[in-house]
Amino acid sequence: MEPVGFAYLGGGLSIGLAALGTGIGMGILVGKTVEGMARQPEVSGLLRTTMILGIAFVEALALYALVISFLLIFK
Amino acid sequence: MEHLKPHVILPLQIGSLDLSITNAVLFMWIACALVFITLVIAGRAGRLVPKGIQNLMESMVSFLHQTFITEILGEEAAGWFPFVATLFFFILYCNLIGLVPKGFTATSNINVTASLAVVVFLCTQAVGIYKHGLFGYLKKFAPKGIHPVILIIMIPIEIISAIAKPFALAVRLFANMTAGHLVILVFLSMIIMFKSAIIAPFPLAMATVMMAFEIFVALIQAFIFSILASMYIAEASHAEH
Fold it and tell me: Which helix (H) or strand (E) element contains residue B22?
């Protein structure tokens, strides 16, 4: 159980847990967008643009965790 | 991992500054030249009913104009639209050049994205100070109508959020581009790892799918960077906090 092993474990764990939260968040987001588009099809362009914006924010959080995991694995 | 790191093509020292030409710099110049050439050709064509490349560029610019000006930037900050649109096209071309064989994504280097984020940060602060004066800009960190005790907590939070926003901008673009290239690298190295010709088509197919997804991500990340930059400029320019 050397310290280097813990770094690899931490790297894998960090991105795994981040992907969990991101998956749930994006699922809720896209589901609400589809629901909104079904209720009112004429604003679906605006809804699609806002959804892409929201997805980028959620994805950024997961990518912070990915950066940390890269730092852990490659250093 | 080797060709994901920048390497120096032409070492160049001026005084104590290391201004060597790395391949990131070279590809940024190529992206600038391509943006300039395509947009100038599209602008010169000048037909009333656009065709060909003028159509493509005009559709992108008009989509950006409609999204940015009417909703986000508004009337007063509308002069900032050329800056934000240039940011969009430059980042888009930098991202897409990396997908061509032998191309290097300049934006997959944290220094490049950090400098773009610093430029956006300086622009937002400059807009805030110019519009509201130095004292009015500092007053924006303290929203009115709240209890003074909460103010002591609110001001550090506002300052931290003002610094975290360009940081997030830089890291978002950098991590998206690097992660995409790394995933493709991992899939292609699985072919070398397995060393069999039967398993080989599957990582190849997955790598092709990831390349297609990369094109999509390149477009989206350029759009997100420019739309967030325009939102920060609009917020600095007409928020009466």
Answer: strand B21-22
Question: What does DSSP assign to residue B4?
Answer: G
Query: Could you identify the residue written with the tokens 């997959």?
Result: B108
Of the options 1.20.950.20, 1.25.40.10, 1.20.20.10, 1.10.490.110, the CATH number for the domain spanning A21-74: 1.20.20.10
Q: What is the pTM of this model?
A: 0.83
Compute CA distances B26 → A52, B29, B172, B176, B239, whole Å: 31, 5, 23, 21, 40
Q: How far is A3 from chain B (nearest CA, A)?
A: 24
Nearest to A53 among B171, B176, B224 (CB): B224
Average of pLDDT values for B17-27? 75
State both tokens at B176.
């998206």
Complex ipTM value: 0.76
CB contact under 8 A, A63 and B171: yes
